[in-house]
Amino acid sequence: MEVSPLITAIVETTRAYALAMIANAAPVMAKPLIDRVGRHRVDFGKKAWDGRDVFGRNKSWEGIAAAIIISVLASTVFVYLEGNPWWIMYGFVSAIGAMCGDLLNSFIKRRLSLGSGECFIPCDQLSFLLVAHALIYLSGVYMPVGVELSARVLAFGVVASLFLHLLTNLIAYAMGLKDVPC
């Protein structure tokens, strides 16, 4: 029985980007714990040349750690399903890429005088994914796990990210984990 091209694309996209998407959501999911233990800003509260925050008050070392830990833990599902321990490294690289993309997005938002949590569509939805994609590709970690990083998979990832990011932010807002619903 032949599998439809749509199903194949969905599976390939999930394999390629699920861990980056999980990493991107992890700091929000871990917010209650982070608020209890304390938040240490990535930019150490410093200002950029323009007098604005470098990244903003919501970007913390604890959030980055949560992204890495949760992505690596989630990668064990792929290890179990596919029997390939390289998925642990894939989860780690995905998380680092997602967090670098998120920090880049925050840096740009501060330069544009947008506040922490303020909507910046489509950059909020795509920066983490595109930087994760680039880092996964440049590191070569996609090869030992057999992930396809084609233009088709990236296009499906972009569409999925646009939709899922908005949906999960609405849910996080309804749960009181985010201050704004976008």
Give structural notes.
There is one protein chain. This protein has helices spanning 5-29, 31-37, 61-82, 86-111, 123-139, 142-145, 151-174. With 182 residues, it is mostly helical. It has one domain. The relative contact order is 0.16. The mean pLDDT is 94.
Quick rundown:
The chain has 182 residues and is mainly α. The protein is 69% helix and 0% strand. The mean pLDDT is 94.
Helix content: 55-70%
Rg over CA atoms? 17 Å
| Unreliable stretches covering 5 or more consecutive residues | none
Kindly estimate the percentage of residues that lie in beta strands according to DSSP: under 5%
Total number of beta strands: 0
Structural class per helix/strand content?
A: mainly alpha
Report the total helices: 7
Rounded to the nearest angstrom, the distance between the terminal CA atoms is 41 Å
Could you outline the blueprint of secondary structure elements for this entry?
Elements: H1 5-29, H2 31-37, H3 61-82, H4 86-111, H5 123-139, H6 142-145, H7 151-174
Name the features:
182 residues, mainly alpha, 0% strand, globular
